[in-house]
Every structure is written in C-alpha cells, then in structure tokens.
Amino acid sequence: MTHETFGSRLRRVRVARGMTTKRLALLVGVTPSYLTQIQKGNREPPEDLFARLSRAMALDAGELAELKRVLTRERILRAIDKPGVQTEAAALAVEILETDDGLRPEAEYRVLREMCSLFLKKDAAIADARLVAVAEAN
Fold this sequence. Notes:
Layout: H1 6-16, H2 21-28, H3 32-39, H4 47-56, H5 61-79, H6 85-98, H7 106-120, H8 124-137
Helix pairs in contact: 2-3, 5-6, 5-8, 6-7, 6-8, 7-8
C-alpha cells in the first residue's frame, strides 16, 4: 500500500487553495525554499510552523486531522529506523494518545495504550513490533 507523504499532501492542499509556494511561505514566515523542502519531504515542519500552515490555508478540522495523521505516521516510520527507537517511539505513542482529536478508531487508541504499557515494562521488542504494525496499517 502506497501512502501519500505529508509534503505531497501539503502541496496538494496548497494548490487546491490556489496558493503559490511563494505566497504560502510569505503568509507563514518562511522562505519559499524551506517550504519546498517540506513539500519534497526533505524537512519536517516544527509544531509552530504546522499551526501557521493550517491557519494560512484555512484547513477544516478533517483536513487538519488528516495532515496530522500523515505527519505522525512519517515520524513513527522514521523513529523505527533509528537506534534508540524505544525512547522516541514511546514518546510518539504518548503524543498521539495525548492529542486525542476523536477521529481515530478506538482500536488504534487501544493499541497505542498497549504499546505505551509495553515500553514502560521494558518489553521493547514486542512494543516495536506493535508500532510497526500500527504505522504500516495507516
């Protein structure tokens, strides 16, 4: 299954809003080059920039939740490719649980709560496997 990246999704929404890269960059206070790097997947927007992007493009709740889901999925996949995955992945799982937007299926939250519990019990191998399954399912 191929997933749309955060950058390509952002670009698609920007184009649908009739905005140029230059215009959106100006609205959110970054250079067009920096925004292009985000759209190409070479950079990840920090939280404050993500918030400015969503306001500048007037995203509705569903669009915002979908962009957050795509970005979170990419963060999880990057985390599982790094050494020390347990710490970063656990932090991401906790972040997802703490930002309950009510749009995720209850089953997904159940898996994330289970993962957090496994990390706390130091059963990282099982937690990593669950994390990979959740990331690939989304």
